[in-house]
Amino acid sequence: MILGIDPGVRKLGYALITKEKKIIDAGILLLEEKNLTREKYFKRILEISSFFDTFFSSHPEIKSISIEKLFFTHSNQSNAEFVYGIRAILIEKAMKLWISVYEFSPIELKKNITGNWKAEKILVQSMIMKIFNLTKLPEFNDTADALWLAYLWLQKTK
């Protein structure tokens, strides 16, 4: 099984799929609170770490994770250090379990799924709906992004 992860502090998307493109689990770790203090960021990292300890132990058949490379702009740099920390923790967890780790940039995702590296999110999401036979868009973009990541791993390893 392949686990796609779109890392984030307030919204972290994840999607576990099989090589046959069957979705086993997909969702979001959502923190509604805004304007976090450093202490709350640290606690959030612990929550995410704990979630994935349980997730990995519940799904020992995970063979690979596909995680998004970070892309920061001026508007989202404030939590960059924490997102890097979350990525590091998840990558370490995977490596300790002998799970392969693959990284893809947002541009790689868009280009491989739609053929256009400048594709709008709605086009990518509609492609994901077709690929996975979904009847509606995932509620959060971060869950759709995690599905893209898992699917892209499938495409790259064929």
Word description of this protein:
With 158 residues, the chain is an alpha/beta fold. It has helices spanning 38-58, 80-96, 106-114, 121-131, 141-156, and strands spanning 2-6, 11-17, 23-30, 64-68, 100-104. The chain has a five-stranded mixed sheet with strand order 3-2-1-4-5, sandwiched between helices. Strand 1 (2-6) and strand 2 form a beta hairpin. Helix 1 (38-58) runs parallel beside helix 2 (80-96) and helix 4 packs across helix 5. The radius of gyration is 15 Å and the shape is globular. It starts with a strand and ends with a helix.
The tally of strands reads 5
**How are the strands of the largest sheet arranged?**
3-2-1-4-5
First and last CA, distance: 14 Å
Assess the beta-strand content as a share of residues: 15-25%
Measured on Cα atoms, how large is the radius of gyration? 15 Å
Overall, the morphology is globular
